[in-house]
Amino acid sequence: MWWRAAGICTKVLCPSRPDRVTGPSETPHLPPSPRRPSPVSATDPTLLAEREHLLRARADLRAMREHTLSLNAQGGDHVSTEYLKAALYRRAKALEDDPSLPLFFGRIDRVEPGHGREETHESFHIGRRHVMDGNGDPMVVDWRADVSRAFYRATRNDPHGVVLRRRYGFAEGELTSYEDEHLLDTREADITSRILTEEIERPRVGPMRDIVATIQPEQDEVVRTSLERTVCVQGAPGTGKTAVGLHRAAYLLHTYRDRLARTGVLVIGPNQAFLHYIAQVLPTLGEVDVRQVTVAELVDGTGVPPRVTDTPQVAALKGDERMAEVIRRAVWSHVGEPAETLYVTRGTRRWRVPVHEVVEAIAVLRGRGDGYTTARSLLGQRLAHRILLRMEAAGEITDDRVQNAVARSRPVKAYVDELWPALDPVKLVLRLLSEPELLAVAAAGILDADEQARLLWSKPARGPKSAPWSPADAVLVDEAAAALERVPGVGHVVLDEAQDLSPMELRAVARRAGTGSLTVLGDIAQGTTPWATPSWPDALRHLGREDAHLEVLRKGYRVPAAVVDFAARLLPFIAPGIEPPEAVRSNPGRLDVVAADGDLLAAVADAAADVATRIGSIGVIAADDMADQAAAALTAAGVEHGRLADDARVTVVPATLAKGLEYDHVIVIEPARIVAAEPSGLRRLYVVLTRAASSLTVVHDDALPEPLTSREPLVHQGG
Ligand SMILES: Nc1ncnc2c1ncn2[C@@H]1O[C@H](COP(=O)(O)OP(=O)(O)OP(=O)(O)O)[C@@H](O)[C@H]1O
């Protein structure tokens, strides 16, 4: 028998409960609840009427699409015609019906008081997109419309005018059930929404899904925050931060369509595996034009493809906020002190700009707050203007053309080049990391001698192509480029796993946001980089958004109670004061801790073979340097599996890439090795353990990390 419990965790949780995950029509894990609505018969008149509404809405959507396709794209010229064609194509695409999903998932009926006249009754079906009939009346209202807000927010205490909220169950695109809440009926007890519970507990297969039918009130508040405001969301694992961030992006794109069509929305995630996982959410919500990038991709336009990885100590120093000032100084140290009068000859006359006037012009330009290159480009004009004033005083006739000619004249250009040389950000950072003298000037009073020595490459680089660039260097180059010229920003940035970014990375993100707003998502307890942010006010300061609104999400939709209890043992050691999620799932989940008895990989293979019999996705997570061995063990045991982005049912995941992902069943191999692999190993372990949505199996041969053994054996109530 391989199910041998570890020394301290002698209990296999919920052994009597088969680990099945509910399908749409059954909920074996739900506690018996007399208030749960009973299934609806297929001849139920309400259900039939709703099916009829769905049929008509589908026909109306078809008509809307056909109308769009029939439109003739005719612009004033070729470019505008092509533009119009593309817009119509996108519109037609957005109007495609997905037969596997009904066009609406909910409905609200409202009564508006008549104030003396008859009160009005209104009914709205809420769906992923707006559908109207031939008269322009709404058949389905977009979930982002103002009128839909009440669907998400109405409670018995604050019904928002809603008398009835209806949720629909469906299978293969057809409505199969509904649940009604009569919010004004005081006799009706609160129900445990079976549809909501099933949605939350549905098995995870494939990439992340949207949660539009079941957004919870505290999540909706974040989603519908206005575009002007930056929101920062702290939330334990599985509280829906990523989901909320993506839905906010969709909400903003709908509500501020014109503004954001011009400026755009950018989603930033930790790595490609994560971006792959979330890639479908926005397109499902009808938003196909959102750029989704990793932090590394954000700065890859700098032209310094990373070749090496810095030691954590060096990377932390390069990511330190003080580097921004070092770079700023390095840039501006290139503006010289004018020592000579500028002479320009035109025709038979020679004109001069004395040193003190040049000094003055430079001071004015430096004081404008422009980038180095932008300010430099103005210096020639400023000097030419001084000459123009002298020419006019001498009775010459001048105009803009003369000033431009003077600004572009060889003596002026040479003078400017000498005094205020053109800079290239890559070469500048290369010199900064190669030349102790330049670094000493730029870092004087900011970095001590040891820190300066730590920054310098062991051998000065000969050129950008051969330099040993690291990811942190790319961020420095990005900072230097921004010190030269401002980068245009987008209208809104959604930044996920923000706790892991260094101050310098946060600055790079802030530059992309320009004057726009951000949705900053993260969990301090999941910070695994050496430079992880210690607090949100810190991170927000680096983002230049101190006034952001901080929201805390507490309810956990992923991790079941048994797994939360286990993983939360780490919290006092990794993030004192941070609360674990309050598990919303009614199924307490399953936790198995297996001691391997000398043959770790055999135990892993056994565990995988066992877990593979369950419904849902499976993640086998190991320290990075064990992932290949784990995959080989699965192959040997005949367990089919893939690597990240393969979309296989069983996926082998290196621990450092697990962040943000989730699987119904997670097998964690040798926690002690995950902890030992990096300075923030305990936090990494916390991330890894909390990927499980249904069951967690921990297989170990070494002793479990002490914090996990720090309490009495686990006995889960209600399991
Ligand atoms: N209101 C909801 N209804 C249904 N499912 C939800 C809801 N909110 C979140 N979920 C689901 O819970 C899971 C966790 O959500 P998400 O990945 O957004 O959490 P997170 O806070 O970003 O987690 P982590 O910090 O671990 O990355 C996802 O499968 C998501 O779809």
UniProtKB/TrEMBL annotation:
- Give an example GO cellular component term for this record: cytosol
Q: Which SUPFAM superfamilies match?
A: P-loop containing nucleoside triphosphate hydrolases
User: What keywords does the record list, in alphabetical order?
Assistant: ATP-binding, Helicase, Hydrolase, Nucleotide-binding
- Tell me which domain of life the UniProt entry assigns to the organism this sequence originates from: Bacteria
The entry marks the following residues as binding ATP, namely: 235-242
Region Disordered, annotated ranges: 15-43
* Family matches, as InterPro entries: DNA_helicase_UvrD/REP, P-loop_NTPase, UvrD-like_ATP-bd
Membrane-crossing residue ranges in chain numbering? none
What molecular functions are annotated in GO for this chain?
A: 3'-5' DNA helicase activity; ATP binding; DNA binding; hydrolase activity
Q: Where is the UvrD-like helicase ATP-binding domain?
A: 214-560
Coiled-coil residues are none
For this entry, list what GO says about its biological process.
recombinational repair
Q: What is the name listed in the Swiss-Prot or TrEMBL entry for this protein?
A: AAA family ATPase
Organism, as annotated: Jiangella asiatica
